[in-house]
Amino acid sequence: MRATPLVWLIWIKAHSLQTGIGHAEADWGKRRLARVLVQSFEQPDEVEAAHRNASASIVPTGRGDYAAQLVRVMFDKLEISSVYESAPRIRHVQQIAKRCFFKFPAMPGYALVSGGMAVPYGSIVRHARAEEYYERSTGSLHWGIMSWPHEGIAELGIALAGVDLAAPRSPLVVTPAPGALSRLMRLYAAATTLSIDSPDVVASEIAARSLEQTLAEALIGCVLDQRKDEDRAAVRSHQTIMRRFHRILEANAGEPLYVPDVCVAIGVSERTLRSCCQEHLDMGPKQFLLLRRIHLAHRALIASDSVETTVTDIATQFGFWQFGRFASAYRVIFGEPPSATLRRPMGRGGQSGSRMTENVI
Amino acid sequence: MRAECSLDLVPTPSGRFRVKLTQMKFEGTNVSGIEENQPRIIIVKVPHNKVLATLCLSDGSAQKWGSLQTHSGDLTIVGPDQTIHASTERPCYWGVVWLPVADFIRYGAVLTEDVATLSDKVRVWRPSASLYRQLRRLFTTAIRAAHIQAEALMANRASHGLEQQLLHGLFDCLSGQPSQTETAVQLGRRELMGRIERLVGTEPVGRIGAAHVAAALGVSASVLRYCCEDVIGMSLRQYLELRQMKLVHRDLHGADWGTLSVTEVARRHGFHDFARFAAAYRMLFNEPPALTIRQHRQRMRPPAANRR
User: What is the reported pTM?
Assistant: First the structure.
C-alpha cells in the first residue's frame, strides 16, 4: 500500500536574516540555520526522492516490505543523517561535489558493502569527491552519514589537527581507534535521539553550536586516528565498470536490458562484469537485470489498464515468456499475482520487494 | 531454411518423410526448430556471413555433423562458408541458430571465457547439464511462443528480449574448450563430400557411378569408400541411388501428367531396370510410384472435379 511520507519539518532559525552574512565566524551565534527533519517511507521511490546531497536509485533485493526512516539534522555546515532500512536493497548513489561525506554502520548487524568494499560496524567510509557508487545491504540496516562542505573541512582539518582532510581520490574505508569511534558513536546517537525527542533543544543556539562543533571534532578524531585500509587499483577499475554499467541503465530507464547487450555496450567480458556486480551488488548481472525487469514489469502493471492490456502482453514486453514461472517469481516478490496488480485501479501499487531465482525467463 | 543457406535433403529409410519446421527471424539472429519423423541426410552450405549453431531438442535425438557424432547435450558450431553433411539414424528434433558472423564475434568476445573465434573446423561443445537444459528450455519456449504468442513476438521489445536471452544461453554453453574438434583427416573427408555434391550437381541427369566420381575427383576408390562410410554411413553407390530416387520422387510430384509417364521420369534419372526401380521406390517411400502420381493428381484436381 502506498502511503504518504510522514514528515515533521522543524525550522529553527534564530533572528538570523537581519545580521550580516559576510562574517560567518563572528556572527555564528546569530546567523545559525538549523533544521531537523524526520521522515518515514514505505516505497523505495520515496526514499530516492528524499536524497538531498545525492541522486539515488534503490532496488529492494529481499522479500517483504521495504520501509525506511530518516532523521536528518542540518547544522550550519555539518549535516548528519541517521537512516534505518527494514529490508536489504541495492542503492546507486551519485553524490554532489560540494560536500565531503563520511558514512558508517550505526549498529552492529547486517553487512554494508559500499563501492565493492565491505564496511563493517566500527569502520567509516571516506567518500571520494562526487563519488558514484553502488551500495548494498544484506538485511535491515541502521546507518549514518555525516557531511561537511569541502572548503570547510579543509579549513577545519588544518585548524584542529594541522592536516588536510580533503576528500580522497578514491574512497577509503578507515577503521578508527576504538576510543575515537565510541566517542563519535555516542555523540551521533545522542544527537539523533535528541533531534527526535526534543528538536527544540537541538535547535537552541548554544546546543546546536556545541553539538556541531563536538561532532566535527569527534569525526576528525576518528579520521586522524585511523588504520587506513589498502586502496587497490582493482577496486578503482571495478568502480569504473560499475559507473559505465549504471550509465547504461540510466540511458535505458524503463527499458528491459539483457547481459549480452550490456557487456557489448560497456566493452567488458561477462566474467569481469559478473565479478564487479558480485562485488558491488552481491549478485551477478543476469540476476540483477532480471530483478530490474521484474520491477519494471510491476510498474507497467500498475500503470496499465486491465481492459486494454493483459499480463501476457506486459510479461513478454519485459522478456518473460514462461508465464507460470513469471507469475510465481512475481508473487514471491510482490506478494500477489501479476493479474491482481493489473486489476487494481491504475496507479495503485502492491507491496515492494525482493530477491528471486535465476531461472525465470 | 533455404533463405538462410544452400540446403539439400535426402531421406534415407522407407516411409514418407515429414518435417515440422518453426522459423523465427529476429533482428540479427534466425532460429529454427525442426522435427523430423524419418532419418535423412542433409547437405548444408553455410553462407560466408553466417555461423551455424545446432543442438538436439529431445533426449533421444542424435545427429552426425560431418564425421562428428553429436547427441543431446552437445552444441555444434559450423563456421561460415562451410559445406557439411548432417545425417540422422532415427527421428530427430533439433534446433538451429543462424548468427551473423559479426554478432558471433561481438557477443563471443564478451560472453565466452575464451574468445569465440571462427574456424574452418566443425566444433562440438558439451556444456554442463544445467546450461544445456537452460538453452533447450529457451529454445522450446521460443518455438512455443512462435506458435501461440506470434503476435507478441512481433513487438520489437519482446522479440529483442527473447533473442538476447537465446544468445546469452547459447554463448554460456560455448564457454571453455570444445569437447570435439574436427581433425585434419575429418575435415578433408568433409571437403571431399562437398566436392562430390558439386560434381553430382553439375553432371547431366542420370546415374553416376562411384568409379566415375573417383576418377573425376582424382581420388582412389578406397579413399572415397572410407570417406562415405565415415561421413554419411553408407557407400557412395547407395547414396547416389537415394539421391536420384529423391529427384524422381520430386519430379513425380511436379510432373505434367499430360506428357510424362513414370517410366520416362525413372529413365531420365538413370533407372533403366523399371522393376528394380519400382521395388526400390516402394521400399524408400512406402508406396508405388503410381500412387505418388495418383495422389498428386488428386491434389491438383480442381475442387469441383473432386466433388463429381
Answer: 0.69
